[in-house]
Design goal:
Shape: globular
Number of strands: 25
Number of helices: 19
Structural class: alpha/beta
Strand content: 15-25%
């Protein structure tokens, strides 16, 4: 059996200008990064204004497990299947972070015969967007510390600095550091912190900004610290906005690549869904909807994280309305949720499967709260039995969901025809009545409680004393109308990663709340979730290499 990277490296790619031509993009409107990837010009993006929108299809999943779900694989395969059916479709994805690529996952371009390519470029430096985001973030940090060093005219309270440095790598020792050690010329000694670039506010801002003007307005609102009066100090106060925008100028442009079957794909932005809002850029999604009849996008991790934030943050901010949702599951993951050990997942176990479907049922219930038609798909594995597939199919039909089997990993677009036809049928026969879960006017505490009880299934929320104080301060400062971005572990609906299925009788534990004023949301840290991940005992980096011909090896 060939690995993902072997399949990708054996593929014959079309020049990116030929892919662009499928979307009626003139070659002169491409900013080329080699033969197979390009950015869309600002001029072309402006030309799209006024065009009608295509249908918006969101792909999400049940909670991730070690058994695998294949959300990105399904997204890519569905796009390829639309192409095989003669439909004008485009895929809109996030860019992978180097952290997971060298940590656990080893790649994030899909899998098997449903991948976006060139996968090595995408998984590594791609077009440099993440480096630009990291640089802009750390420029602001440097300007902040320099301002304090040069006399602190803004009266910044160094005990209330909230802006963190970032790096696009899993590096646990940078979570909590001390900076400014040495001589007087080396700055003030203080505690500092790092987050991974994909969890940074700059990443969120880039993904939510409509254009350069909007980007600069959002950058200006970033709260970096509080002064001795308790008032927020912003990036505008530090005169950082222009320089940060200059670093982000090219990163603002969506990237165009292709799938193994030459379906166009816009890949842009990459916030994590467990500690950020987990969706690709608004610019890429809106451009995709203008360029094709069908835009297929995804949101990270399970529907409790990515899909909730797609609906309650991205759609709210950008005025988007999904027409259908594809919910991805696997028989293996459902059995894992039913208590089967990873080593035994190849064995048929209908009792564990039925027990584990509580997780699928909860996600279906949650998605229906947004008023969008749901199509459930099982990402097929060779170990699945007909009886297992029948159990899931019957369950979905009883829940009023369309159902289709997906075999895109092994068969590419041909393996997604049944799913594509079911999605098209759903779009034609069922109308979306999209609505957000909560209203802006609710208090921050009420918004947190609504997500915790309605989406996670918690009995209530346990707020730390610090979190309650932070909420009160943020509402006093005028941030109470913001949506909330819940930072939670991805493995469970609860904040305890060991509680699988659809746990009951638990409370969500909120330990910290802070504002991302430029992004326009309030971040809520729950349980023990970290904004800077660490590497596992055996990181994927141990297996990655490059040969004498410059060929990347071991990248998944």
């Amino acid at each position: 059996m060939k690995s993902d990277i072997e399949i990708a490296q054996e593929a014959t790619l079309s020049p990116i200008a030929e892919i662009a031509a499928k979307l009626d993009i003139p070659e002169e409107e491409l900013e080329l990064y080699g033969r197979y990837k390009a950015k869309l010009s600002e001029q072309f993006l402006k030309q799209l204004e006024g065009r009608p929108d295509g249908k918006l299809i969101l792909v999400t999943a049940i909670n991730p497990t070690p058994a695998g779900e294949g959300k990105t694989t399904t997204t890519v395969g569905l796009g390829q299947a639309f192409g095989q059916l003669g439909k004008k479709a485009i895929i809109a994805l996030r860019e992978p972070s180097l952290g997971p690529c060298f940590g656990i996952k080893g790649g994030a371009a899909g899998g098997g015969y449903a991948q976006v390519v060139p996968m090595e470029d995408l998984n590594l430096h791609f077009t440099g967007d993440f480096h630009a985001i990291t640089s802009a973030n750390n420029l602001l940090a440097a300007l902040l510390d320099n301002h304090i060093q040069q006399g602190n005219a803004l009266g910044i309270d160094t005990r209330q600095i909230i802006w963190k440095r970032c790096e696009d790598m899993n590096d646990r020792v940078l979570r909590n550091v001390v900076v400014g050690m040495g001589s007087k010329a080396d700055g003030f000694v203080r505690e500092d912190h790092f987050v991974i670039t994909v969890a940074s506010e700059i990443m969120a801002i880039l993904c939510l900004a409509e254009n350069m003007q909007d980007l600069k307005e959002r950058l200006a609102k970033i709260v970096v610290a509080y002064n001795f009066k308790g008032e927020p100090v912003t990036a505008r106060d530090l005169q950082a906005v222009g320089a940060m925008a200059a670093l982000l100028k090219d990163a603002m442009k969506p990237n165009l690549i292709q799938t193994l079957e030459h379906t166009p794909a816009l890949v842009h932005g990459g916030p994590f869904a467990n500690i950020a809002h987990g969706c690709n850029s608004v610019r890429a999604t809106k451009a995709a909807m203008k360029m094709a009849d069908y835009c297929i996008t995804e949101a990270g991790f399970g529907a409790d994280l990515g899909a909730e934030k797609f609906c309650d943050i991205k759609c709210r901010v950008a005025g988007l309305r999904p027409d259908a949702v594809v919910l991805v599951a696997t028989v293996r993951a459902l059995k894992y949720n039913g208590g089967v050990a990873k080593a035994d997942l190849d064995k048929e176990d209908l009792d564990a499967l039925r027990k584990g479907m509580a997780n699928l049922e909860k996600h279906i219930e949650n998605l229906h709260k947004y008023g969008v038609p749901v199509v459930v798909t099982l990402n097929s594995f060779v170990s699945d039995t007909e009886r297992e597939l029948s159990v899931v199919r019957t369950f979905c039909e009883e829940k009023g969901c369309a159902f289709a089997l997906s075999e895109v990993w092994a068969k590419g677009g041909a393996g997604g025809i049944a799913l594509a036809e079911k999605v098209l049928e759903t779009l034609e026969t069922r109308e979306s009545h999209f609505q957000v879960l909560y209203e802006d006017k609710l208090s921050l505490r009420e918004k947190i409680e609504t997500i915790s009880t309605e989406i996670y299934g918690a009995d209530g929320v346990n707020f730390s004393a610090a979190a309650l104080k932070q909420i009160a301060q943020l509402e006093k400062l005028g941030y109470g109308s913001f949506p909330v971005c819940m930072a939670k572990n991805q493995y469970s609906l609860s904040d305890d990663p060991t509680l699988l299925g659809a746990p009951k009788g638990f409370e969500m534990n909120v330990r910290e709340v802070y504002v991302s004023a430029g992004a326009g949301f309030v971040v809520v840290l729950t349980g023990a979730v970290m904004t800077m991940p660490g590497l596992p005992k055996e990181p994927a980096a141990h297996r990655i290499d490059v040969d004498e011909d410059g060929k990347i090896l071991g990248l998944y």
